Amino acid sequence: MQSQPLRISTPEEHKKTLTQTDALLEQNIYNDGILEYINHGGSPLEAVNLLSESYIGIPSMCNVTAASVDSVGLDSDSILRRAIRQQLKERFDPNRCDDVFMRDKSHITFAWLDVLIQDSHWRQTMYELLEKYPSCSFLNFAILVS
After folding, report:
1. DSSP H or E stretch at residue 93
2. Backbone torsion region of residue 4, taken as left when φ is above 0, otherwise alpha when ψ lies between -120 and 50, otherwise beta
3. Name one Pfam family in it (predicted).
4. How far is the C-alpha of 14 from the C-alpha of 20, rounded, in Å?
5. pTM of the complete model
């Protein structure tokens, strides 16, 4: 799936983008974040400061935590899957999901959706979400193509 450019129209929105947690890790942050911020009057030094101050390193923390869990003989993959599943079920917003799904016309080729559907753990999660949100277009589509 081809990445979409960030759609930002004001200098303040560019600044918000650069200050989001771990913005430095976003795919288009250099071209669509930093350059646009500078083109709208922001200074390069301020852009670097905003990015460095917003960096927390969540992916790195997850890796360190997983290594620690594995080192005591537990299965970090299983624990992480359960935690993500629980959070997904608690925070799933069918309206927001459908808004994105209906806006993105490339949904027929969602490669990541195929991966989820093939995994029995995530497929079961989709079934459970569909029971809770039977009118969710995205979930109905996902189940239909499975």
Report:
1. none
2. beta
3. TH1
4. 10
5. 0.61
Between the two ends of the chain, the Cα-to-Cα distance in Å is 19
Which two tokens mark 80?
């992480």
From residue 1, how far is each of 26, 59, 78, 108, 130 by CA, in Å?
16, 22, 28, 10, 25
How far apart are the C-alpha atoms of 11 and 55, rounded to whole Å?
20
CB atoms inside a 10 Å sphere around CB 17: 22
